[in-house]
Amino acid sequence: MTEDLVIGIDVGGTNMRSALVDPRGRIVLQSRTATGAWLEGRETARRLIEECRSLRLAASGFGAAVRAAGLGVAGRIDPREGRVVFSPNLPRMNGYPLAAELRTALDLPVVMLNDADCFGIGESRLGAGRSIPNWVGLTLGTGVGGCLVLDNHLWTGDNLGFAGEIGHMIVVPGGRPCACGARGCLEAYASGRALVEGFLEAAATGAPVAGIEQRPLEPAKVAARDVHRLALQGDPLAREVFRRMGWAIGLALSNCFTVLGVRHAVIGGGVSAGWDQFEGALVVSLAEHATMFEAADAVIRRGVLGDDAAPLGAALAAWRQLGHGA
Amino acid sequence: MTEDLVIGIDVGGTNMRSALVDPRGRIVLQSRTATGAWLEGRETARRLIEECRSLRLAASGFGAAVRAAGLGVAGRIDPREGRVVFSPNLPRMNGYPLAAELRTALDLPVVMLNDADCFGIGESRLGAGRSIPNWVGLTLGTGVGGCLVLDNHLWTGDNLGFAGEIGHMIVVPGGRPCACGARGCLEAYASGRALVEGFLEAAATGAPVAGIEQRPLEPAKVAARDVHRLALQGDPLAREVFRRMGWAIGLALSNCFTVLGVRHAVIGGGVSAGWDQFEGALVVSLAEHATMFEAADAVIRRGVLGDDAAPLGAALAAWRQLGHGA
What we know:
homodimer, alpha/beta, Nucleotidyltransferase, domain 5, five-stranded mixed sheet, glucokinase activity (chains A, B), Glucokinase (chains A, B), ROK (chains A, B), transferase (chains A, B)
């Protein structure tokens, strides 16, 4: 008997993560390819198709057949047309019919979702959100993704192609410019980009850097993990941008809990690796801003699936498209 | 045959509105009594019980029987215990077992809800929210109430006794103090109290008042409707506080739409009578802050049930308790 599998892919601002996933949500094989905000839609599609073909070949190598693909992409999605409508962090994908092209090239059903929604499906079914009916999800990466799980299901709102976009909730009116074009979004304070930009700005203004040796900065090469490393070493500027990040997340989650009447959040994404540097400020901020709920009742968890959450969630969405799973 | 009726009551910061409602949601009889933030819980309960008894008497007068009562109260509610947990605008009600006392005194099933949630049920079933599956509700009164209707039902979240508290979403971190104890809540910019306080503050600083004659102010007697009247007469200070109100509502609704992926809102409450003075700023603010959705797709409606929305919704909740209606 041929085993049935699906492909789950997370197209992020930096990497593309793919996985072959069985009907029980187990990853059979996975891989990672570089992407980048500078890639044209056509080139991203070409790499995606290539990736899917090699996964399909691998599947047939051990007697399995790929039945569908699920695609998670950062940004606002038109799920019917399989098109990226607006992606602040993959701007060259705007308007590109990525899913449609994949569908044609692979002759497979392809479902496309927002990447943070994939995170929500993955963590809800197999991770930190299991057995929690209502929760708010945040993915901290190049940008800040968000999702809502309500009544045990990913909430899709009016099916406008976006929902749970907590990263673009405005936390500081007129504040820092965001990749989306607005000012003061959570993403402008809590993303990997915000950490790097905030740190470089502070360093450039010549603010006193106490306790660590002066070091030459190569702005183009500084990544969020460098800022994290510096914070761990005690750099006060690096610590300050992480504190600001925690403050902004605490405020945004407090607002979400107040509006939704819920008390659980799950935070994932690569930049959540800096947890130790922002958790304290997050907890203080949540308590400072909460009046309708007891801050002590709030439960903020880290995601447990790591980088697998989004490709797994995309795969589960593909399985669902095929009639498997809730 | 005896006709069955229920009582619906809205206990607001200023008035108590009661209605006898039939199973189809028609108001058979209604009345209004003064309440006030200064009233002790015991005195409020006494007035409520008296009101219910006279409505019951009236019902029996035309051959009908009262089967239950629904109670809408501003604030966080413990629905199981029938207790007001925390009410920023009826502070003396905090902790008071209002529903339990009513239940005992009247020997009737009594259901207690947040007053803005009653507005949500009323407008959803019989008003501006009919046929709109997902919408955000705001009630502008002494404070700012909020509710969410999701999938055609009032959203109650984790049943923590509050949900949809958009009035306590923080729109300006560290901003104006709010009755709830936090700073910068929507309510601190968009409530009747905020209008009056903002206007009096501006007038007291001696800011130039152009275009109208100087008038003696009696701060204790100024109400939101007076600020509205002054705005209609062209008073720039009054107009400014209404503009600020519209700006804050536009920002809060933009955040709600971005997080929920929905595009409809219904605004009610007595202070929504100032619609002409804040709508323009609201629309501008919504467009300025929206990036995930097209501001042109957003639909902001006024409630159509007026002061009847909350007592009607409370009555519908009582009918539901009895097994009538969805």
